[in-house]
UniProtKB/TrEMBL annotation:
Keyword Chaperone: no
GO molecular function, one term: transferase activity
Protein's organism: Mycobacterium botniense
Entry EC number(s): 6.3.5.-
Protein name: Aspartyl/glutamyl-tRNA(Asn/Gln) amidotransferase subunit C
Keyword entries, A-Z: ATP-binding, Ligase, Nucleotide-binding, Protein biosynthesis, Transferase
Catalytic activity: L-aspartyl-tRNA(Asn) + L-glutamine + ATP + H2O = L-asparaginyl-tRNA(Asn) + L-glutamate + ADP + phosphate + 2 H(+); L-glutamyl-tRNA(Gln) + L-glutamine + ATP + H2O = L-glutaminyl-tRNA(Gln) + L-glutamate + ADP + phosphate + H(+)
Enzyme class: ligase
């Protein structure tokens, strides 16, 4: 017996703005019921002796340290720009946003 009804699937589809056929509603009801059944089995596992963890992988910082290096000055960076305004690159306005 399915724990999730065809009407519940239709309601979820409506909320998600999905147009589903009758065959899809029946199919998805069975699939969602199987998923909920598996989740139910997982929830019954005794994990009282297991230490909680956010990730099974070790946290390793792979970024390099920040170091000051020579770079372009503001004037050098803007020298080849098609247009600059107030010391910044000027770009076209998008989507009619106000300036």
């Amino acid at each position: 017996m399915s724990k999730i009804s065809r009407d519940e699937v239709a309601h979820l589809a409506k909320l998600a703005r999905l147009a589903l056929t009758d065959a899809e509603l029946d199919s998805f009801a069975g699939q969602l019921d199987a998923i909920l059944s598996h989740v139910s089995q997982i929830q019954t596992v005794d994990v009282s002796g297991v230490t909680p963890t956010g990730s099974p992988l070790k946290d390793v910082n792979v970024t390099r340290p920040d170091t000051v290096r020579p770079s372009l000055t503001q004037q050098e960076a803007l020298a080849q720009a098609p247009e600059a305004v107030d010391g910044r690159f000027a770009v076209p306005r998008i989507l009619g946003e106000p300036a």
